[in-house]
Amino acid sequence: MHVGKFQSFFGTFKETTLACILDMGGLLAGFMIALQLNIFDTTPWAIALYPAVISVKAIITGLLTGRLSTALHLGTVYPRFFGNTKSFYRLIGAMVVLTLATSATISLVAMLFGTLFWGVTISEFPAILTVMVATLSLGLLITLITIKFTFISFKRGLDPDTIVYPAVSILANIIMTFLYIGVLNLYFSVGQWAIILFGLINVFLVLYILPLNSRDREFRKIIKESLPTILLVAFLVNITGTFLKGISNIVRGNRVIYTVYPAMIDMMGDAGLVVSSAATVKLTLGVLSPTFGAIKNHAKSILSAWASTLMFFTVLAVLALAINGSFTAATLYSLMLILLVSNVIAFTAIVIVLFVISILTFKYGLDPDNFVIPLVSALADALTTIALFVALLLLF
User: Fold this and answer.
1) Dihedral in degrees, nearest 10, Cα atoms 148, 150, 152, 156
2) Residue 27 and residue 35 in contact, taking contact as beta carbons nearer than 8 Å
3) Reduced to 3 states, what is the DSSP secondary structure of residue 200?
4) 3-state class of 191 per DSSP?
5) Does the structure show a pLDDT above 50 at 192?
6) Residue 38 and residue 208: Cα distance in Å, rounded?
7) Exposure of 185 in the CB half-sphere (CA atoms within 13 A)
8) How far apart are the first and last CA of the chain?
């Protein structure tokens, strides 16, 4: 019995650690933001939209990975780009349509948040819409990368859900950060017409795809099941953006905080997914009762995941300071204190919220691909950002 418990603790720690190692790539995305703070200071909505850009692409990637993985195992899709089934091409078409729908939805919600909290006026809506659509349109490249990774992992007998999503998610963050910065620079240096062509790519693709698939039951099912999640996520990412703007107001030009931010939200999100996934398995096996009080029986998994994030938050502090050339004993102590306080706040909130979601998922049989994983990811980003905001208010 003792050995089994130790393996459970070590297994969760190992799984979280592997995810955190991949998430260290978020330092590159953060450093790109830190180097381009001048462009983010141009307008209030530039930094506030950043969580939407990276979170939404990761969520769409997650939807694609989950559905494609299931289809490959069922044999309704073949692991190749050309000469594939109609289901495969419908799925790609649905992702293209969802990308444009998400861009428009987030822009509308951003305008609401912008007028209420960011100091943005209605006249800036065309800019927000154009930048968001252009960035996510260019991000369609990640869809092709995701599909290729999924095919390779499937052919080699690996689980695409376990291997592809974490790897592509961090790659998507880096690519989307680069694209977003590029689009912002073009917009503010040349003007709206410099980027509108990128957005039109997505618009023309949707105009081509919809007439071909609008009457197809499978295509409509994918759109119908995914849209409610996207609407909910649109609000969550704008809440995240509002607090990130608050963080920006506190730290001003402190590049280190921006450097660690993408890796922080990735690590906390992955740790939350590991804990909630383990809880779901235990609930299914009947080892865990579907009540909140049963969280105490899940303590070993929770503590092991938390230990891994604490270890990597320390590594983040060291590397972020070294990258920015500001490493001293005083700055290390200050940054570690901020990160560890935000870790405790974020992890506690994430575990409580996600444990409740795991119970509801089990009770109501919700689809992880369409609802749980995207919602968990967006919630973890929001809670981690709020935790960092609170820690900075207390300590910065």
Assistant:
1) 180
2) no
3) helix
4) coil
5) yes
6) 39
7) 12
8) 46
**pLDDT tens digits for 85-106?**
999 999 999 999 999 999 999 9
**Mean pLDDT over the full length of the chain:** 88
Residue pointed to by tokens 């609930």: 283
Q: Give 298's contacts (C-beta < 8 A, 6+ positions apart).
A: 275, 278, 279, 282, 288, 355
Please check whether residue 318 is in contact with residue 304, taking contact to mean a CB–CB distance below 8 angstroms.
no
Is the distance from CB of 54 to CB of 262 less than 8 angstroms? yes
What's the pLDDT tens digit per position in 111-138? 999 999 998 999 999 999 999 999 999 9
- The Cα-based distances of 38 to 156, 194, 252, 266, 307 in angstroms read 45, 20, 11, 25, 36
Write out the DSSP string of 255-266: HHHHHHHHHHHH
Backbone torsion region of residue 252, taken as left when φ is above 0, otherwise alpha when ψ lies between -120 and 50, otherwise beta: left
pLDDT in tens, 218-258: 899 888 878 887 788 889 999 999 999 999 999 988 999 99
Q: Which one-letter amino acid corresponds to residue 65?
A: T
Report percent pLDDT > 70 for the chain. Answer: 93
In this structure, are residues 378 and 106 in contact, taking their beta carbons and an 8 Å threshold? no
- In the predicted structure, residue 268 carries a pLDDT above the cut 90: yes
- Burial annotation 227-264 (CB, 10 A radius, 16+ → b, else e): bebbeebbbbbbbbbbbbbbbbeebeebbbbbbbbbbb
Per-residue pLDDT tens digits for 5-14: 444 667 778 8
Displacement of CA 222 from its chain's centroid (Å): 20
**Cα–Cα separations (whole angstroms), residue 280 to 249, 306, 380:** 39, 18, 17
Contact between 176 and 145 under an 8 Å Cβ cutoff? The reply is: no
- Euclidean distance between CA atoms 66 and 136, whole angstroms: 20
CA 305/CA 7 separation, integer angstroms: 13
- Closest of 83, 60, 96 to residue 208, by C-alpha: 96
Number of neighbouring beta carbons within 10 Å of residue 339: 22
Contact 345, 387 (CB under 8 A): yes
CA distance 17 to 2: 22
pLDDT at 255: 95
With a pLDDT cut of 90, the percent of the chain lying above it is 54
DSSP code at position 47 = H
